Structure formats: C-alpha cells, structure tokens
C-alpha cells in the first residue's frame, strides 16, 4: 500500500508497511481457514503432534513433567539464512513447572542436526525463562531473569540474538518488553533453507515425532525476525498487527524524499 503526498505527487510506502516486512520471516497467528499456515509463506503448514490443537486463534500445547503430550512443528523453510534473529511469542501459561517443565514457547532448530535456540521455560530453574541451546552452547541465566508465579496471564516473551560476525552473539531476553537480562555467548549458528524447523511446546526435536521438554500453554501468536530487534521495537509490537521495526528510519527517508522533491520543484 502506498500513500501519495498529493501536492508534490511523491508516493511513499505506508510507514507501517516497510521495514519489518523485510525482516519478518515467520508469523503464526493460528487464525482463519488456514490456521496452520505461516503468513509470510516461508514455512510449510504446522504439523500438530499428540493432543496439540488449534481453536479460536490459539495453539494449545501440553506436557507432563519433561514429556510433551502435545506440541507442533513446521519445516520446509525457504527464506534467507538466519544468524541474527528474534523469537517473539504471545501466550498464556496454563501450568507451572510442577505440571510441565523444560519445554519451549518457541524454538528454532535444524532439521538435519542438533542445533537450536529457544524460549525455554523452567529447565534449569523452576518457572524461570532462559535461552536454551544445543549442548548448552549458548546457555546462560538471564540476570535478573523472571520467575512466573501464576497462570492464565497473557504475556509477550522475546529473545533477540545479535551476531557480531566473529562467532559471538549478544543474547537478550524480554518479558512484556522489559529486559530480563543480556549476555555474550560464542558458537553462533546459522539456519538455512530446507534445514530449519520451528517448534512449539518441546525444547527441540530428536526426530519428526518426538523431542524433550513439556509445556502447558496456550499460544496466541509467534513471530520470527531475521534481525535482532531492539527493546523499543519489541515494545512496539502488537499481536496480529505488525508495526515495523525501523519505522523512524523509514519516516526519515520519506521526509528526505519530500524535501528533495520540494527543492527540485523550486528550481524549475
């Protein structure tokens, strides 16, 4: 969609349609006639496992102890290579660690080998969020972190991963837009076409049919960005609406184009 500045006939992209569409590479709203679909078209349809279900725009996952009873998976990735990234999920816990533990609200994993990052719940500390990764390569506790003590509250969880290009990442966790900790980690990984899967409920996949970790939760939306969003960008996100990270930069570009058009008109 475009908006034209009528007097000077300068057409600019609508401010909320430009920047994040270039970096949003997966979005699951669990809504409509194709509730299994990734709206960006980069992944195949979700595959529901066990007693996982989708209804009323929500994905329900289930577990007992560290065993998943219901989870979901999607493969067939066709987008750009992913190193810097942000995982974002909106959902409600329906059980604490005494019910299900060490599962994931959202995990990115390789299909052909064991390499994953995920928004993991209660694995090392009861009811506490962490980034989980293969063999603990990129694990560390968030400080101050966040420990849940109640259920059925809609929350936004996000973890950003900024790649510095030398194998080092800055990993930052956010709960409802609040920074819950950040640290440096080595062993940066890259996910590529046809070797990337997204998982909901389990920590990572041992195969197409199983994986460790359980989570009791109802998920309302999940997104994958191929950049490390800033805190302000994460705070600006809303479910089922994609305000664009970098909007101010797009706006500045638009103003610059308008000023240039005015100068050219005055010179005529």
User: Unreliable segments (pLDDT under 50, ≥5 consecutive)?
Assistant: 1-22, 247-268
Overall 3D geometry? globular
Helix content: 10-25%
Total strands = 16
Strand content: 35-45%
Alpha-carbon Rg, integer: 20 Å
Give, in order, the helices and strands: EEEEEEEEEEEEEEEEHH
**Structure annotation, total helices:** 2
Largest beta-sheet details: 14 strands, antiparallel
Class of secondary structure makeup: mainly beta
Look at the structure and give the mean pLDDT. Answer: 85
Beginning-to-end CA distance, first to last residue: 30 Å
Describe the 3D structure.
By secondary structure, this protein is mainly β. It contains 2 helices and 16 strands. It starts with a strand and ends with a helix.
Give the secondary structure arrangement, pairings included:
Blueprint: E1 2-5, E2 10-13, E3 24-28, E4 47-50, E5 53-55, E6 58-64, E7 67-74, E8 85-93, E9 103-109, E10 116-121, E11 129-133, E12 154-163, E13 169-175, E14 178-185, E15 197-201, E16 217-225, H1 231-236, H2 247-267
Antiparallel strand pairs: 1-2, 3-16, 4-7, 5-6, 6-7, 6-16, 7-15, 8-12, 8-16, 9-10, 9-15, 10-11, 12-13, 13-14
Characteristics of this structure?
268 residues; 16 strands
